[in-house]
Amino acid sequence: MVLYDELGGQLGIRKVVESFYPKVKKDPLLAPLFTNDIDSIMEKQEMFLSQFFGGPDLYTSVFGHPRMRARHMPFTITRDHADAWLSCMSRALEETVESEELRHAVIERLKVSAYFFVNS
């Protein structure tokens, strides 16, 4: 199963991202980390998730190798941050993805990255 296709391709990824970031902006732990232009952050997230889930290499074609851990190093990220991020994503998926099995598969895939970014 290619998660990109199962999620509905680029449009499906966009829906998840658009549902996700309002939750992040309301989260007391995460909101302070996202003070920059949220539109550009959402665009980068959509590009990254597209290739992360098996779709086109949109992020790499524009920004080069993702090096996501290095890109997140300037920020203090704790396990609580990772948990909050995953919670926001879970709620976004509940709003945008019908299949419970697919939501579970997406979260399991994202857990690896979320906890990999923990640096404090």
Describe the fold and architecture.
With 120 residues, the chain is mainly alpha-helical. It has seven helices and no strands. The chain has helices at 3-6, 9-26, 38-52, 58-63, 68-72, 79-96, 100-116. It starts with a helix and ends with a helix. The mean pLDDT is 91. Belongs to the truncated hemoglobin family. Group II subfamily. GO terms for molecular function: heme binding; metal ion binding; oxygen binding; oxygen carrier activity.
Concise account of the structure shown:
Helix content is 69%, strand content 0%. With 120 residues, the protein is mostly helical.
Tally the beta strands: 0
The whole-number mean of residue pLDDT values reads: 91
Full CATH superfamily name: Globins
* Biggest sheet overview: none
What's the number of domains? 1
Helix content: 55-70%
CATH architecture: Orthogonal Bundle
Outline: globular
- Number of helix segments? 7
The whole-angstrom Rg is 14 Å
Low-confidence stretches: none
SSE order, as H and E?
A: HHHHHHH
**Percentage of residues in DSSP E strands:** under 5%
Q: Looking at CATH, which topology would you report?
A: Globin-like
Pairing-aware structural class of the strands and helices?
mainly alpha
Family: Belongs to the truncated hemoglobin family. Group II subfamily.
Pfam family, one: Bac_globin
GO molecular function, one term: heme binding
Protein name: Globin
Provide the fold topology.
Elements: H1 3-6, H2 9-26, H3 38-52, H4 58-63, H5 68-72, H6 79-96, H7 100-116
Family: Belongs to the truncated hemoglobin family. Group II subfamily.
Protein name: Globin
GO molecular function, one term: heme binding
